[in-house]
Write a structure and sequence with these properties.
This is W2 domain-containing protein. One of its GO terms (cellular component) is cytoplasm. Belongs to the BZW family. The protein has about 375 residues and is an all-alpha fold. About 70% of the residues lie in helices and about 0% in strands. The protein is built from 18 helices and no strands. Helix 13 packs parallel to helix 16 and helix 16 runs parallel beside helix 18. The longest helix has about 30 residues. The chain starts with a helix and ends with a helix. The N terminus is likely disordered.
Length: about 375
């Protein structure tokens, strides 16, 4: 009896394997017109049917019916999605064996499969095979993903494209699709700008800036925590900012956040937290002053402090004292403080902070009148 059950189970597996082979071949026929030899684009012996992706024109109108056909099959037989994935991976791994026009067809097909949202097709498994050194080195992959992105954006928004890249886990790895000698921000911008994908250029710049700012914040936090030499820290930060071309306003915000992150806050002692924050500002005020050399940047610093104090309950009452301390260290100019007091645009906690700063502002105004 046991032997009969085991034999039946093995028989089921044989049937399942047979069906998988049939399905794999079916998807391959729709894709290429017939079975192809492993590791090549050469057809195996036998008649080739003309109604396939590689045998039609390189246009959305001609390729979309094939995608919709596969979509109907997969809706009835969901397990077939794995066969489609396998075929797509095999073809993309052999991109360099195809002519440019056929690579364009594959790019259009790939974009349409994600536009039509074929259930269960994981973008990570599709795009990851493109990061093959030999494909990347020849520039084959770069041309493919450029065509793929352009086709995807015909019916989808840029936010949809970013969501797709995130699901594929490549939103931070776009430079890796460039040959090593062209793997620079400048080359990235030039290539995708010419391809009409300017939003992708701006997105990548933002991502690069975010990474650089995060690295800067980590560096600063460590240096401040270790009480490193002020002059050396300032020079190092300036050099990093210059090399990465970081926006001044973002640098100001990052320096402030690093100052606060380096504090060993007390869990419950409110007064101790206030003292720690003020001591940090007074100790490292010169660092802040090195990156707030204009009234606009000083105003950005005030807005940053305002938001920080508003979002952190333990510092809510500390805002006026921080502003006064930075004024005493010549980090914030009188004109900037008065402008914020009278016309500041950040609404977060503004009424409370204006009331708290009023005595100091009154003192500034009186001192100005006496002069």
């Amino acid at each position: 009896m046991t032997l009969h059950i085991v034999t039946s189970i093995i028989g089921l597996f044989d049937v399942y394997d047979w069906w998988m082979i049939v399905i794999l071949n079916l998807v391959q026929v729709v894709y290429t017109g017939g079975r192809i030899q492993l590791g090549s684009t050469k057809p195996e012996e036998g008649e080739r049917q003309p109604y396939s992706i590689l045998n039609c024109d390189a246009s959305r109108e001609k390729i979309l019916p094939h995608v919709l056909f596969i979509q109907k099959i997969i809706r009835r037989r969901p397990f077939m999605i794995k066969s489609l994935e396998n075929v797509m991976q095999r073809q993309l791994q052999s991109l360099e064996l195809y002519e440019q026009v056929d690579r364009l067809k594959l790019a259009i097909f790939t974009a349409l499969t994600f536009t039509q949202k074929l259930s269960g097709l994981p973008p990570e498994n599709i795009f990851s095979v493109l990061l093959k050194d030999s494909l990347v080195a020849k520039g084959t992959v770069l041309g493919f993903i450029t065509d793929c992105f352009r086709e995807y954006l015909v019916e989808n928004s840029f936010d949809d494209l970013i969501a797709l890249l995130k699901r594929a886990k490549i939103e931070d790895r776009l430079l890796e699709f460039f040959p090593m000698q062209k793997r620079t921000i400048e080359a990235f911008s030039e290539h995708f700008s010419k391809a009409g994908l300017a939003p992708l250029v701006e997105y990548n710049k933002k991502k690069v800036f975010e990474v650089k700012l995060k690295e800067l914040k980590t560096y600063l936090t460590d240096q401040i925590s270790e009480n490193a030499d002020m002059g050396e820290v300032i020079e190092s930060v300036k050099q990093r900012c210059k090399e990465a071309k970081l926006p001044d306003a973002d640098v100001v915000r990052t320096v402030w956040e690093a100052l606060m992150d380096a504090i060993q806050w007390s869990g419950k002692n409110q007064q101790q937290n206030i003292n720690l924050a003020l001591r940090q500002v007074k100790t490292w005020g010169t660092l802040l002053g090195s990156f707030t050399h204009t009234g606009k940047l000083q105003l950005e610093l005030i807005y940053t402090i305002q938001t920080y104090c508003y979002e952190d309950a333990k510092l809510m009452k500390l805002f006026p004292e921080i502003i006064r301390a930075l004024y005493d260290q010549d980090v914030l100019a009188e004109d900037t403080i008065l402008f914020w007091f009278r016309k500041g645009s950040n609404p977060k906690g503004r009424q409370t902070f204006v009331q708290g700063l009023e005595p100091f502002v009154k003192w500034l105004e009186e001192a100005e009148e006496e002069e």
